[in-house]
Amino acid sequence: MKTKFLLAACGLFFGIIAILTVFARPIHISTLPHVTASRVTRELFSDNYTRKPAVPKDLLDNGGVFIVERRPFNGEMRDFARRLTVTLGEENETHFEIKEGITGNEILITGSDREVNDGSEVLIVN
Predict the structure, then answer these.
(1) Model pTM?
(2) What three-state secondary structure class fits 104?
């Protein structure tokens, strides 16, 4: 009786482990913040001649913005949120000029279905 119970318990345990192994990646992806992202735009400000790197006013988070940083993790390339502190310049109706902190080649996180923290892995959905 003990042997049958142990065999059944072991079979159940290894069955659950096999199922979790197969579905580990989809489960992990479902727990990540799903973000929308776009490239840094260039906007006209007071001089009306030069387009400068800019960030929408609603994306500014206490003097910083979140960008997507792609880097290797566990043998594959993954996307992570990184908070950058920026120095602001001029502003127009919808944007702030970025004087320092962003080169203009970064991908900005423009929205998320949940809170995004510095260093957390994210999934880009747009």
Answers:
(1) 0.80
(2) coil
